[in-house]
Amino acid sequence: MAGRDGGYLRPAVDAGLRAQISFSVASGYRQKGDPGESAIRTIVTVVPATFGSVSVAFEEVPSQEWKEKVYKPDIKDKWDKLCKRPGYEM
């Protein structure tokens, strides 16, 4: 709900959960629709967050840099935190 402040309409402060989603995809990915909006719609059905409290990052990574920039820091080093593990190793 929006509130009034000195005659100006301002957005209400959302005191709920905040969420950040980051996508990394190999170069050459063919985007279908808006991946950010689709991800947010899914997240708000799973965690108590609102559409406005979720941010999404989308990064294309060259295939030859995948191991260094994505696999090691975001997959291998966070293996125990992954909700879905890949079916490959590097």
Short note summarizing the structure:
The chain has two helices and four strands, in the order βββαβα. It has 90 residues and is an alpha+beta fold. The chain has one domain (17-81): Macrophage Migration Inhibitory Factor.
Cα radius of gyration in angstroms: 17 Å
CATH architecture classification name? 2-Layer Sandwich
Number of discrete helical segments = 2
| Parts with pLDDT < 50 across at least 5 consecutive residues | 1-13
Q: Classify the fold: give the CATH topology.
A: Macrophage Migration Inhibitory Factor
Shape: globular
Order of helices and strands: EEEHEH
Assign the CATH superfamily. Macrophage Migration Inhibitory Factor
Number of domains: 1
* Average pLDDT level: 79
Q: Tell me, what is the CATH class?
A: Alpha Beta
Q: Helix coverage percent of residues? A: 10-25%
Alpha-beta content class? alpha+beta
Main beta sheet: 2 strands, antiparallel
What distance separates the N and C termini?
A: 48 Å
| Beta-strand percent range | 25-35%
Largest sheet, spatial ordering of strands:
1-2
Number of strands: 4
Topology of helices and strands:
Elements: E1 3-5, E2 8-10, E3 17-26, H1 35-46, E4 49-61, H2 66-75
What does this protein look like?
By secondary structure, this protein is of the alpha+beta class. It has one domain (17-81): Macrophage Migration Inhibitory Factor. The chain is 24% helix and 32% strand. It contains two helices and four strands, in the order E-E-E-H-E-H. It has helices at 35-46, 66-75; strands at residues 3-5, 8-10, 17-26, 49-61. It has a two-stranded antiparallel ribbon with strand order 1-2. Strands 3-4 form a two-stranded parallel sheet. Strand 1 (3-5) and strand 2 form a beta hairpin. The longest helix is centred in the middle third of the chain and has 12 residues, at 35-46. The model is unreliable at 1-13 (pLDDT under 50).
